[in-house]
Amino acid sequence: MQETVAADYGRSWYAATAVEAPIRPPLVADIDVDACVIGGGLAGLTAAREIARLGWSVVVLETKRVAWNASGRSCGFVLPGFGADITQIVERVGMDAARNLWMLSEAGIEYVRATIRETAMPGVEMRPGWLDVSKVDNGDEMVARISLLGQDFGAVVEGWPTEQVRAVLRTDQYFHAVHFPRAFHIHPLNYALGLARAAEEAGARIFEQTPALEIDPAGVRKRILTPSALVRAGQVVLAGNTHIAALMPELAGTLLPLTSHVAVTEPLGPKLAEAITYQGAISDTRSANFHYRIVDGDRLMWAGGGEPFARSTGRVAESFKAAIMRTYPQLDGVEIASSWSGVMGFTMHRMPQIGEVSPGLWIASGFGGHGLNTSAIAGNLVARAIADSDDHWRAFVPFELCWAGGGLGRVFAEASSLVRNWREDFDAKQAQKRERQRREAGDALPPPDWNEARAAAAPAAADAYADEPHDLRSSDTWPYERQPRGELTPDDEVEAADGPSSAAEIDWRQAQRSAEPNDDRRR
Ligand SMILES: Cc1cc2nc3c(=O)[nH]c(=O)nc-3n(C[C@H](O)[C@H](O)[C@H](O)COP(=O)(O)OP(=O)(O)OC[C@H]3O[C@@H](n4cnc5c(N)ncnc54)[C@H](O)[C@@H]3O)c2cc1C
Description:
Radius of gyration: 22 Å
Helix content: 25-40%
Largest sheet: 9 strands, mixed
Bound molecules: flavin-adenine dinucleotide
Number of helices: 17
């Protein structure tokens, strides 16, 4: 590993396998631009790329190196949806607006996929599929989820019964699962480095080692002070995640900083392929528990956590080792090769912060542990709002900026995470016990009633979208404007397998109106 890379990005497996990236010089002379983006993570880089592609001059100011924190340290799962559970979103904004938001979340995935393809991005290693497995034997909740996503939202989603799950994940800890064939996983640091290059190719300028120290957002030209120079810009995008605290303490106060951990094992040889044959991303609960995937042929990348008070990476790595062996006893003797952590900014409602805080001051933040697709949405919506006065960002108006509770919020988050984890472990153990009893009695596991869900879900192949180009910039191909999808017909299923723009059109504006509490552009 190059020492500069290790110093800037930590001793992660990603840093060790990062593609060559230039060190960008800091800003040393005053500059006048149309837009200034503060923060060189995925949100800021996407916004800058899209602002530049729309013909505006734009600079990115980054305190350290691009993607040194969450964006370059994540598990790399590019998933549909948001941090908030879809049923909570429906409860908050209603069916039409929730469907519309789900479409946006899928468009975020497609943006990442299209960007990787368009730019022939090196080292990203896109692999399809996400399997969200259950550790309990009650399939009702999953059936309801599949019905909502497949039938009501027209999402491509499959229900996998327990036998199918255990055929690819050889552990008796798992029961049924929801499979999302259009999701995929990537090397997130290489994606972010590629995105930075793509932003520069579009005309954006990126200054590393350039913290924004003060901002005067009043007036038509906003002034941003950095250590050596002043930036004047008509529009400012705040994309600093929790690190924005010194610049904008009130905004930072709307985020709860949670630390998550990732570890990569030493090569496991053929026994890994015997334990896990699924090559996509795997999550084993709905809340913050374990996520994993195979990397480098025969290594396991294992991630988890989401703690308000950071633990030592070494201790976490030991606990991951134990969890791997508990889940897959056949991987006994597994050793961790590298482990690291990153900080995520969580909002109270678990939805991202996307919108205009005051005239010309935009926010693209609060993506929590679900930032790969949502930062892509944010970058696109904010760029289009700035350059085209596009108002699709208003779909997020119902999710206001609200205080995250400061120190007390952290204590509360710690307590509720302990309770949730304890509850999930307890439920999983009970499910195991029931299964043992069923086995002893010679009874089979009652399968979930997938019929309703199956009727709704398109049986798409994992690589159904392999060659689909997608351009979010063009309003002609803006994928959010689709009609509500009803029952799937055989023709629809073929369409769904053909590509992401195949679903019938949703009336975005109507859905958006139902999501908006009033006409006030500001929050
Ligand atoms: C361990 C881990 C695993 C994760 N796994 C996944 C996953 O599998 N899938 C998924 O979808 N999401 C995942 N996430 C979440 C996802 O990585 C984040 O939500 C996303 O990367 C946030 O991007 P960002 O641009 O908002 O923030 P960041 O990546 O934190 O970037 C913000 C940048 O702003 C800069 N900055 C802040 N203030 C200033 C200032 N005043 N001046 C200049 N620069 C400033 C910072 O230096 C930083 O580089 C994970 C996160 C972690 C930590």
